[in-house]
Amino acid sequence: MDAQDQTRCDALFHALGTKLLGIAPDAIIHDALAEPQAAVDEDIVMAQQALGESAPLKLVRLWRNRPCLVLPRRHAHSPAIGEASALAGMPVVFRKSGGRCVAHGPHIANLTLILTGDHTAPRAPYRPLLDLLGSLFASMGFVGEMRSVSGAHCDGRHNFAVDGKKLAGTAALVMRRGERQAVLAHASISLHFIASDLTAIMQVERALGFEADYSAQSHVGLTELLGNAALSEIGTDRETCLA
Amino acid sequence: MTAIVVPTDLWEDGSPAVLGTWLFSDGEQVREGTIVAEVMRDKASYEIAAPASGTLRTHVAEDDEIALGSAIGRID
To answer: For B48, which of A33, A47, B26, B37 could close a Cys bridge (C-beta 3.0–4.6 Å)?
Structure first.
């Protein structure tokens, strides 16, 4: 990713944050975190703290991470994880939610929604997050649909897709402590699609024994979707970036 | 002996899931309430807690298909 793309991603992330605060005023915005695993674990820390509160909570976090690949923790003890990590070309860290391998970095915005108590819908863990994503993207002028996307990495029924391409993927974790429960659902939103992410993901997944054959044509980033006019409005047009 | 049962109210449509991972090995000592397994469905992970303290005995392997209400292990 060159300097212009980096600048665009920075501006897009801040624009997303501004839009999000208009929808969820208490949202937490985390950027430029220090260490990839700690950034991922912060979601769990927040969920565990929420579980300890007696009142029902709704927590929203928009965040970015340093470049890394993120795998479900079940793979942490795979005999092949050493070989897979060596092929990644970047740090490999682990999350508690399901799915397959995803990339993090300055070109990916992560949106986390944690619900406890009466707010939870553990039998439909993605619905509140998809509603939030729909509102967030509608505020930026475009609509999408919840669907699987053939050829997309970490595919699932609850992707947020635009024109048949995956813009955001989702995964969830349902935690129970006695009678209390928390639903943590998160989305990885592509600010700017980078094909080399797919190469790294496929290498890692194949080393872990998965069939992995993904297509760049199945993915899209916000920079592609928004177009120059919209990018200009949020200060990410070419001229601004080169200034 | 206490069975470790996948709660019947975890999701709506009763569709099958897989045992994502055991967080302890067969024969390990666990305490009641400790998260011992994860059930995976639709890219969602559902934590399964030990229903009692004792020795964990696993009945299913990772990636085995499981159903709501099924026993995936026991605590001796």
So the answer is: B37
Sheet holding A68-72: strands in order across? Answer: A92-95, A68-72, A102-104
User: Does the distance separating the beta carbons of A178 and B33 come in below 8 Å?
Assistant: yes
pLDDT digits (tens, 9 = 90+) for B22-40: 999 999 999 999 999 999 9
Mean pLDDT of A17-40: 92
How far, in Å, are A76, A190, B5 from residue B70 at the CA level?
26, 38, 5
Interchain proximity A123–B62, CB inside 8 Å: no
CB under 8 Å to A217, separation ≥6 — which residues? Answer: A151, A165
Please provide the size of chain B in residues: 76
Question: What 3-state DSSP class applies to B35?
Answer: strand
Instruction: Check which CATH number belongs to the domain holding A126 and give it.
Output: 3.30.930.10
The answer to whether B61 contacts chain A (CB < 8 Å) is: no
Where in the sequence is the domain holding A224, given as residue range(s)?
3-242
Residue corresponding to tokens 């605060």: A21
Give residue A243's pLDDT: 38
* pLDDT greater than 50 at residue A238: no
Q: What is the ipTM of this complex?
A: 0.92
Residue A153 in tokens: 């990495």
Q: Which residues pair with A187 in a beta bridge?
A: A111, A170
Q: How many CB atoms lie within 10 A of CB A67?
A: 18
Chain B hits for A178, CB-CB cut-off 8 Å, are: 33
Residue of chain A with shortest Cα separation from B12 = A123
* Cβ neighbours of A97 in B, within 8 Å: 43-45
Angstrom distance (rounded) from CA A221 to CA A133: 14
A156/chain B closest Cα distance in angstroms: 7
Going along chain B from its start, the domains and CATH numbers come out as: 2-75 (2.40.50.100)
Residue of B nearest to A178 (CA): B33
Q: Report CA-CA distances (Å) from B65 to A60, A73, A208, B15, B41.
A: 33, 19, 20, 10, 10
